[in-house]
């Protein structure tokens, strides 16, 4: 095995950890940003880069994460729990 292959094997094995979506921090969006995301999603679907291009300072990953956290079943249950605890 040459040096390049050994180096690639080392880097690929150490960086394969994924962050669970449950560990994500909630992304705060303004009402205008949320409205635009909803309207754009109706028009273009889950083309996050296209939607992010319409919102200055936002990345496609942020938009997608926001959408999943807002509309995903796992996060819906967490939101209900947080509302009960805060009430």
Automatic annotation (TrEMBL):
<protein>
    <submittedName>
        <fullName>MYBx</fullName>
    </submittedName>
</protein>
<dbReference type="Pfam" id="PF00249">
    <property type="entry name" value="Myb_DNA-binding"/>
</dbReference>
<keyword id="KW-0805">Transcription regulation</keyword>
<dbReference type="InterPro" id="IPR009057">
    <property type="entry name" value="Homeodomain-like_sf"/>
</dbReference>
<dbReference type="GO" id="GO:0030154">
    <property type="term" value="P:cell differentiation"/>
</dbReference>
<dbReference type="GO" id="GO:0090558">
    <property type="term" value="P:plant epidermis development"/>
</dbReference>
<dbReference type="InterPro" id="IPR001005">
    <property type="entry name" value="SANT/Myb"/>
</dbReference>
<keyword id="KW-0217">Developmental protein</keyword>
<dbReference type="GO" id="GO:0005634">
    <property type="term" value="C:nucleus"/>
</dbReference>
<keyword id="KW-0539">Nucleus</keyword>
<dbReference type="GO" id="GO:0009653">
    <property type="term" value="P:anatomical structure morphogenesis"/>
</dbReference>
<keyword id="KW-0804">Transcription</keyword>
<keyword id="KW-0238">DNA-binding</keyword>
<dbReference type="GO" id="GO:0048731">
    <property type="term" value="P:system development"/>
</dbReference>
<feature type="domain" description="Myb-like">
    <location>
        <begin position="25"/>
        <end position="73"/>
    </location>
</feature>
<dbReference type="GO" id="GO:0006355">
    <property type="term" value="P:regulation of DNA-templated transcription"/>
</dbReference>
<dbReference type="GO" id="GO:0000976">
    <property type="term" value="F:transcription cis-regulatory region binding"/>
</dbReference>
<dbReference type="InterPro" id="IPR015495">
    <property type="entry name" value="Myb_TF_plants"/>
</dbReference>
């Amino acid at each position: 095995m040459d040096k390049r292959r050994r180096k690639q094997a080392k880097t690929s094995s150490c960086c394969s950890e994924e962050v669970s979506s449950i560990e994500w921090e909630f992304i705060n969006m303004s009402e205008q940003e949320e409205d635009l995301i909803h309207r754009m999603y109706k028009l273009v679907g889950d083309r996050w880069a296209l939607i992010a291009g319409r919102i200055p300072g936002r990345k496609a990953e942020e938009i997608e994460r926001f959408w999943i956290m807002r509309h995903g079943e796992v996060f819906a249950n967490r939101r209900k729990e947080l509302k009960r605890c805060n009430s």
